[in-house]
Amino acid sequence: MKFNLNFERCKGCTLCINVCPKGIIEMQSERLNKSGYFTAECKDQDACLSCALCAVICPDCAIEIA
Amino acid sequence: MARLCRKVMGKIMPKFTRAKALEDKQTHYCPGCTHGVIHRLIAEVIDEMDIEGNTVGVFPVGCAVLGYQYVKFDGVQASHGRAPAAATGIKRAKPDRLVFTYQGDGDLAAIGTGEVVHAAARGENITTIFVNNTIYGMTGGQMAPTTLPGQKTQTSPFGRDTDKVGFPIRICELLSTLDGVAYAERVSLHDVKHINAAKKAIKKAFEIQMEGKGFSIVELLSNCPTNWAMTPPDSLKWIKENMVPYYPLGVYKDAEKGVTQR
């Protein structure tokens, strides 16, 4: 698990989707968090480079790269 | 330090964790607002300098009014525009502390212009983090002194008319003419590269303060997706295409290197 998203913290701003060099982050539209946002999710953990660009641009510190 | 390197099976893997100086809380900012990025950058710099117990932040009136809730170091909330005056008092009483003000453009460039200009002219040994998003964000998107010519806001629905309401203020250029200013830099937050540059600028400004060299200011070009009525990615693009040409990035004053304008 490289891309760790804090589900409750994500506000669904989509900024991480645009910076991902692999294009593996996308918005999910099935589960709302407590704040009422659809969140981002990583669809392919194995392809993740751990470059942390998504974590750097995330305004809510919702992403941690392990 | 939020970003560490570790070796896993012969490969160097970067690791990114939350800055220690940040509280583990949900912020009240709108989705995509770069206030959260700036809080994180400040917290990371404080972690790297290891001065969490020795820092006082002075927060403004504006969207960041509750900013002290999201950081673990000390924070006070000053009257509208008066953060440099409050910071002056704190710094003079406790000269060994890192004291910074965190102000928006409505706070610093409108009601608090006199405060920041005189704090800079006196060469007070404080740092100002100036968040410029060309709008009054908290009150609903009214025109600010930094609103670009032609930009539509709640109070300029046909675009800012410079014949009637004048021109935007470029704070870094203005303050760099004062002898009390040791460091003035403008950075942007529209992509990862510029966010990393912004962190370096904040660190440099804090180091200059800790060395006792005088007033330092870092202006950060920021977004307001809600009041600009844009999606967060579009708002970052708007910074790049419209704000950066009007507010050129760079070091405007560095007393060490003798740079006064670039």
Written account of the structure:
Chain A is of the alpha+beta class and 66 residues long. Chain A has one domain (3-65): Alpha-Beta Plaits, CATH 3.30.70.20. Chain A is 15% helix and 29% strand. Chain B has 262 residues and is an alpha/beta fold. Chain B is 34% helix and 22% strand. In chain B, the strands form three sheets. Chain B has a seven-stranded mixed β-sheet, with helices on both faces. In chain B, strand 9, helix 7 (192-210) and strand 10 (215-221) form a beta-alpha-beta unit. In chain B, helix 1 packs across helix 7 (192-210) and helix 3 (105-111) crosses helix 4 (113-121). Chain B is globular. The mean pLDDT of chain B is 92. Chains A and B meet through helix 1, helix 2 and strand 4 of A and strand 2, helix 1, helix 7 and helix 9 of B.
- CATH level-1 class of chain B: Alpha Beta
Radius of gyration of chain A: 11 Å
Low-pLDDT segments of chain B: none
- Please write the string of helix (H) and strand (E) elements of chain B: EEHEEHEHHEEEHHEHEHHE
Count of the separate structural domains of chain A: 1
* Total beta strand runs of chain B: 11
Radius of gyration of chain B: 18 Å
CATH superfamily of chain B: Thiamin diphosphate (ThDP)-binding fold, Pyr/PP domains
| Helix share bin of chain A | 10-25%
Concise account of the structure shown:
The complex is a heterodimer of chains A (66) and B (262). Chain A contains two helices and four strands.
Feature tags:
heterodimer; A: 66 residues; alpha+beta; Alpha-Beta Plaits; two-stranded antiparallel ribbon; 15% helix; B: 262 residues; alpha/beta; Rossmann fold; seven-stranded mixed sheet; 9 helices
List the helices and strands and how they pair.
The complex is a heterodimer of chains A (66) and B (262).
Chain A: E1 3-5, H1 15-19, E2 25-32, E3 38-42, H2 53-57, E4 63-65
Antiparallel strand pairs in A: 1-4, 2-3
Chain B: E1 3-8, E2 11-16, H1 35-49, E3 55-59, E4 74-77, H2 83-93, E5 98-104, H3 105-111, H4 113-121, E6 127-132, E7 135-136, E8 142-143, H5 162-165, H6 171-176, E9 181-188, H7 192-210, E10 215-221, H8 225-228, H9 232-246, E11 250-254
